[in-house]
Amino acid sequence: MRRVTFDLEVLRSFITGMELGSFAKAADRLGRSTSAISAQLKKLEEQAATPIFRKSGRGLALTDAGETMLGYARRLIELNDEAASAIHDVELEGWVRLGLQEDFGEAVLPDVLGRFARAHPKVKIEARIARSHELAERIISGSVDIALAWHNGATLPYSRNLADVQMRWIGPAKQIETCLRDGEPLPLVALEAPCLLRSVATETLDRAGLAWRMAFSSPSLGGIWAAVAAGLGLTIRTDIGLPASVRAMTPEIAGLPALPKMALFLHRKEAEPDPIAARLGDILLQAALEALPGSGDADGLRKRLSADEPKGAQGAP
Predict the structure, then answer these.
(1) Collapsing DSSP states into helix, strand and coil, what is residue 128?
(2) With the C-alpha atoms ordered 271, 277, 281, 282, is the resulting torsion angle positive or negative?
(3) At how many degrees (to 10) do helices 8-20 and 23-30 cross?
(4) Of 181, 262, 267, 304, which is least packed with CB atoms within 10 Å of its CB?
(5) pLDDT tens for residues 21-80?
(6) Residue 194, preceding bond cis, omega within 30 degrees?
(7) Burial of 142 from C-beta contacts in 10 A (0-12 / 13-18 / 19+)
(8) pTM for this model (two decimals)
(9) How far apart are the C-alpha atoms of 300 and 135, rounded to whole Å?
(10) Taking a C-beta distance cutoff of 8 angstroms, is the pair 284, 146 a contact?
(11) 101 neighbors 263 (Cβ within 8 angstroms)
């Protein structure tokens, strides 16, 4: 089998076109002609020795091989850019303060810390895992430089709406009937108030005319997962960071009402962060993208990542 060395510039054009939803837009973004981009895509298919695209109506869609290629292309470009950053910023020193909600502690934080530490070993990171209202307060006070959090309605001056992620009813991985009984109020498991998702759960059930009772509350997400896994009740979260002991449920089960989406925000302390915070923000954005479920939300975030950075305050979703 012949060895193939893929052209990174070709892969970058491929990724950019898929993220923007148009290779004509990719040509503008990359400063190339559309014919040059077309030639690159042809080269990519020749190197892959298999079709990457298929016709879909008036446009193009990825084949199975194309979807596989896109995943590897992102990894290759990410590693390339990480190497370039590490070389050029080898003397970057200082410290940065990062804030994350518990949902992202296991799903995002290890990846972010690993990527950043490999590229910038001389930078110290101070990470705080907290709830959205605390992270917002810390951004305002300046005690956190950058934070990834669910939007809780607070308007911050340098925030960016990354994606709207579907909330889900979450139950135990097994024996769901232990917490759903006909004729009895629905048992809820929630974080201690104030909690955005707690309010959404109770308000959604009230609007649907369904009786509920607060069966368990905890100050930590770990306590929530333990209670749900034990069958004490249901909670609502997203698909991000779910442990194996619980599972997301379809709204139709036992007549549960549909839930809204929740905005995922990146908060920054200042409009123009220093090089350390800016680099950490780039890595955090990519890690957040990868943590999103394989849905339209991830596609929407990819497009936002490739768009120009918006400035100014963001309103409630």
Answers:
(1) strand
(2) positive
(3) 120
(4) 181
(5) 888 888 888 888 989 999 999 999 998 989 999 887 777 789 999 999 998 998 898 888
(6) yes
(7) exposed
(8) 0.64
(9) 24
(10) yes
(11) no
